[in-house]
Design brief:
Helix content is 48%, strand content 11%. The protein is α/β, with parallel strands linked by helices and 422 residues long. The protein folds into two domains: 2-63 and 330-421, no CATH class; 73-324, no CATH class. A hairpin with a 6-residue loop joins β4 (167-168) and β5. α12 (356-381) runs antiparallel to α13 (388-421). The chain starts with a helix and ends with a helix.
């Protein structure tokens, strides 16, 4: 065995040296720039890379033994039936007195429950002028009053209400924007706020709190999880290195009776009781953009489980926080180091004499090995490695090298034919 390894080393090393310093310098530059470009494109939807990343990400997380669960979280969706055909009349901004009545209806079930119900409103309620010079338009004041009154009444019944807040993150640090409910006072023990801005990488759970956001404001999902569980284990992570989560498919919310339309929740029915008792309810938009069943759903976001409304994202984030189902990123430099090693392996692979079949086998093995490493890292250490960019680099390098060899062979044959004719 030692003799075979020595022979292999003696055979490969001269081939690597024969490539020359210029070849290895090009490999170094291309490998570094390719890896860096891959990370720069992480948040850019170019050439379908984001969808490819999401597909690989979800299928790796689906392989884990610990499947994501929604727990007590229920989605109360305002659908086409309520928004376009009902009293909402397709209006934007949404009628706030309707939301107030819905809050009171959801809070009314099981008033003597030992565990307070949680009701979160996933709607943009920023002021028409976000600097606070115009908190609310006069045309909507009456219905905003009714919403505020309903929130106060629900809080008095021991229901916990989570209200939305928006941040202006075009500046650093982010600034809290004025909201239409700012002129009302609520019991802070029962009414809390969370920002609904989503992270740059949708796979990461948004976080807030002291040192993270203005006035220590929690994210919307954190505020929901805290209201549900009383307290949550705050993940320790640096800003820009948020923890990842595994996602619940929308169909699982529906099939598991964790998603209801607002119109079907009629007090006194068994379905209403099953839907709201002892539950944490997130009320959000799930209607078509243009008219009844016309256009895509509103507030859609690309995610590992496809394009889904924002209310499903917040439900996923909150469920992961409650369940402590968080996965730490290995960090950009560690991931880039792994990818650099892989690129170096490919460079060596193409620098030695191998049959096309052997090269394909080695490349396939490297790609498969990276997926296995990503899975094992996720499953056993809670660390996430981004495998899609190295796999793409493998394929591109293979195509480039095959094309270069083919052109060199054609030139050789052309010269040989010219010499024969002469």
């Amino acid at each position: 065995m030692a003799e075979r390894r020595g022979k292999l080393r003696d055979d490969i090393w001269p081939q690597l040296k024969s490539k020359g310093a210029s070849y290895w310098m090009r490999v170094l530059v291309v490998g570094f720039l390719g890896t860096l470009l891959g990370h720069l494109l992480t948040h850019v939807d170019s050439f379908g890379l984001r969808e490819a990343r999401h597909w690989v990400y979800q299928h790796i997380s689906d392989l884990t033994n610990r499947q994501p669960l929604s727990g007590d979280i229920v989605i109360v969706a305002i659908t086409d039936e309520e928004y376009w055909k009902g009293e909402l009349a397709g209006r934007s901004p949404i009628k706030r007195d309707y939301l107030g009545a819905l809050v009171e209806r959801l809070c009314s079930a099981d008033p003597n429950a030992a565990r307070p119900k949680v009701i979160a409103l996933d709607f943009d309620m920023r002021s028409p002028i976000v600097d606070g010079s115009l908190i609310d338009h006069p045309d909507y004041k009456v219905e905003t009053d009714k919403l505020a009154s309903s929130i106060a009444a629900a809080a008095a019944r021991n229901c916990k209400i989570v209200l939305p807040r928006t941040l202006n993150c075009s500046v650093d640090p982010c600034l809290k924007e004025s909201a239409v409910l700012d002129s009302y006072s609520f019991d802070p023990e029962h009414v809390t706020y969370g920002y609904i801005n989503l992270p740059a990488d949708i796979r990461q759970v948004p976080l807030g709190g002291r040192g993270w956001s203005p006035d220590g404001l929690l994210s919307f999902s954190q505020a929901i999880a805290t209201a549900d569980a009383g307290t949550i284990n705050e993940p320790a992570a640096a800003i820009g290195n948020l923890p990842y989560i595994s996602f619940i498919w929308p169909s699982r919310f529906i099939e598991g009776s964790k998603r209801f339309s607002a119109g079907e929740l009629v007090p006194g029915t068994s379905r209403f009781k099953a839907a709201v008792e002892h539950k944490t309810m997130i009320v959000g938009a799930d209607w078509s953009q243009y008219a009844y069943r016309r256009g895509k759903l509103t507030d859609l976001h690309q995610s590992p489980v496809g394009e889904i409304p924002g209310v499903y994202l917040h439900a996923n984030y909150a469920a992961a926080l409650i369940d402590s189902r968080l996965y730490r990123s290995m960090g950009r430099w560690v991931a880039m180091g792994i990818e650099a090693v892989l690129v170096a392996f490919v460079a060596v692979l193409f620098a030695v004499r191998l049959s096309p079949r052997d090269r394909v086998l080695y490349l396939s093995g490297a790609a498969l090995g990276l997926v296995v490493v990503a899975y094992l890292s996720w499953q056993n250490f809670g660390l996430f490695i981004e495998p899609i960019i190295p796999i793409i680099l493998l394929v591109l390098h293979w195509l480039y090298d095959e094309n270069r060899h083919m052109r060199a062979e054609l030139q050789r044959l052309s010269k040989a034919r010219t010499g024969a004719c002469a």
